[in-house]
Amino acid sequence: MSAMVDVGPNADRSPQPGTGVEVGLFKEAMTRFPSGVTIVTTRDEEGRPHGFTASAFSSVSADPPMILTCLDKTARCHDAFLAAQRFSLAFLRPEHWDLARRFASKVEDKFDATFTTDPYGLARLPDALAYLVCEMEQQVPAGDHTILIGRVISVTLGEGDPAVFYSRNLRHLRDLQR
Ligand SMILES: Cc1cc2nc3c(=O)[nH]c(=O)nc-3n(C[C@H](O)[C@H](O)[C@H](O)COP(=O)(O)O)c2cc1C
Asked: Which domains are delineated in the chain?
């Protein structure tokens, strides 16, 4: 027989079935899921780059290669991504924490000389752990986010350790070991 594991005093603040889950509790649960960190970029019709830090990433399909990321509908870059034919994702390393914070902020110009331009005209982070270019395949409205599904048309591999987002902090893999 399987048993529910009680993980602390806040373990079950769920209301009765059918009455919904408190947003704060849901967010708290999400902090317990470690993920990698990416910077997602695109460019608009005028050629201006747009980008945001995203931990919401998943591989979707191997053949054809497809991935997804989720973008908050209130993000300033949301409309640029909705109109985009292509977008890119860079998998970050711990050396990129400042960049991760900048792309999660509301600063006007997030891009600097760290970035180069790839053959598709997208801003590329040259020393990313991996760099993917995607054709926009599907955009799925989902609650307060839009799921961007991309077909991967280019992959560049880098070297190093991954940046990890866990318990509301950017971390090194070794920080996760107890
Ligand atoms: C580690 C980390 C992960 C994040 N993941 C996401 C994400 O997956 N989706 C999202 O929409 N925003 C995410 N954010 C917040 C966005 O990066 C932030 O709201 C960004 O400024 C939005 O872009 P804007 O300047 O165009 O509004 C994350 C922030 C951090 C620090």
From this structure: 35-176 (2.30.110.10)
